[in-house]
Amino acid sequence: MSILDLLPSQTGIIVSLGGAPEFQARLIEMGFRAGIKVRLVQKMPFQGPVQLRIQNGMISLRYADASKIKVEIHE
Amino acid sequence: MLLRLKLKSMNNLSGIGAIALIGNPNSGKTALFNALTGLNHKVSNYPGVTVERKTGSCTIGDDTIEIIDLPGTYSLVPESQDEVIVAMEVDSWLESDHAPACIISVVDATNLERNLYLTSQLLDLGIPVIVALNMMDLARNKSLAIDAEKLNSTLGTAAIVPISARYREGIKQLKYQVAQTIRHPVDQAALLTIPDPVKEAIGPMIKEYKKGGNYTDALLHSYAIRSVTTGQGYGNTTINGSSLESSRANLRSIGFPPETLEPTLRYHWLDQVVPAAEIHIETQTRSEKIDKVLIHKWIGPIVFVGLLTFIFQAIFSWSTIPMDWIDSGIASFGNWVASTLPASVLKDLLVEGIIGGAGAVLIFLPQIIILIFFLSLLEDTGYMARVAIMMDKIMVKVGLHGRSVLPLMSGYACAIPGIMATRTIDSWKERLVTILVLPLMSCSARLPVYALMIGAFIPQVTIWGIFGLQGLTLVVMYFLGTITALILSIFFSRWVKEERKSSFVMELPPYRVPVMKSIFRQVYTRGKLFVMDAGKIIMAISIVLWFLASFPETEKGSDIQRSYAAKIGHAMEPLIKPLGFDWKIGIGLVTSFAAREVMVSTLATIYNVEGGGENVVSITESLKNDLNPETGEPNYTPLVAFSLMVFYVYAAQCMATFAIVKRETNSWKWPVFMVFYMTGLAYLASLIVYQGGLILGYA
User: What does CATH list as the number for B2-183?
Assistant: First the structure.
């Protein structure tokens, strides 16, 4: 499932990243990588950016970019 | 005391290289820079406040050391212009012998691992690295205990010093460690561990760098990994396409995507080095709870529009009393000068030209202070970064970027810092379009013009019980500029060719209670700039203008209708009459090319000359009472005021802006284009307002 399928405030564990390789490199630099917990804080309306908590940072990504991050639900 | 003695006993530190501050955006580099140097550079709670290299000096013991503050970056592989500045600076150190004596890697202690990513890149450079573990005040609140000693030995940094730049804690200890490090530089940086299969796979690239130059092992591996990752050469080595391709093919065959090699390897290493306790995910934070309201789907936009309306209303309603004080202060000062000095040309110049001209503009200081105060407040609390994400969708629709919001809103204060702030936008196209439309955001130099016209011609009434009509008119002017900027972006973005697709990875800083001292500092800086401009540009122009308006003298003394100024103004009339402007405004349009607020001082000087200089005249009253000698009708009507305000919304009238645009776009093409499109737009819009108004029967 994609990170966008999480419910607001739900936490998932990253399975894989996606998108252009250069963009993936930046995502990893920002702390996104397989095995890391990420929480979907909320989504902006009309498929606007999504707000994510990763480790102790709060990062916003565009809807299309976020949709390529696959996660599984963290119990 | 002990520390002081220790520092004094040390060898002389002068003659050594500088110290550079490097860290993630919003990690507090500039706050630390200010604490070290005693300077007052702008600090805020928005990632990407610092967009240029700045230097200052710091006293350690008896020695003075140069400190370099650089923009924030997440990585030495840059994405946007501000990050390119850091990467280029670091490259220049390695290529020349001007390397700093040590690097202070500023790390946000509350987000340790991600911040240490950049530190790990710095450790490979062969320059001693001291980690300043910043925001310890916040880390303590979150009860994050960090074992600095242990971390220091595993990372191989020269020292790790917990500090809080915001509260100036730990600065002495940091200085002490800097002195120690410079005096006893030890290369103890831990080597990035590269798994053997990877090392083997990128063998061709490592070989390339071994041939290419005399690098340390750490730097050699760092360069080889980065080259495989980005496909570019580093140092003074140009890479060979075949070794790149074979390295990449080898990596793929062992299941390693080459394009993400460097970050993957470094995090692999950091995961082992950074204590696991620091990598946990927090339970819902206070900022998260605030965000649930402030950027909520529906509440968020309402709050944003509400805040903006409140600010523009406040600009008008809160400023009335201090403006009256300044007004009467200047008037009584002018009258005192007029009654004390003997009649002479000098007295006339002083009263009519300088006090009348510069004074007319100074009155607007309170409004500018209120505007800057609120803009700084929005930024300092962390709210502006939220506005960027709320607006990103709309911004992309019109060809801009979520990161265009802060530059555009800074444009309400002044276009110049706004244009500088576009450096954080990673796509050239979106950056250029932001720059091109940014001067349409009504800057504080337009405020005196709007305020004068509104004050004179818009009645002070309240509608719907809460909105002042004057404040609302001001909102309309700001809105007009803003909406035009957004519409034009759509067209401009179609013409500009794009090199690559833009991305949006925006960090949202935690909400913080703003530091009033730093807000007042920003207000003071901008207020001072405004007053100094009034002091210099406006005074110089007022003097020249006074001469032009007072001479040649006729036998009856000076007659402004026959002055040089009137002649110049009348010559312009055929061009500006269709807009409803007379020769006085014509002169103002010419003089405002130096700066927009000069329009106000120009009108003031003209009226003061006309008034004969016995008293400093009220420019508002003069405008209302100015009658056309032939028809006896008022020269200025609310329609003329509107036409003039609309002209000022659009007109290109600021030399300093064009100079910055030339520098940032590195070409004359764009500033020239800007002057033409803005002036054309201003003329057309004014023409439509005035002629349309006449047709509709407003005189």
Answer: 3.40.50.300
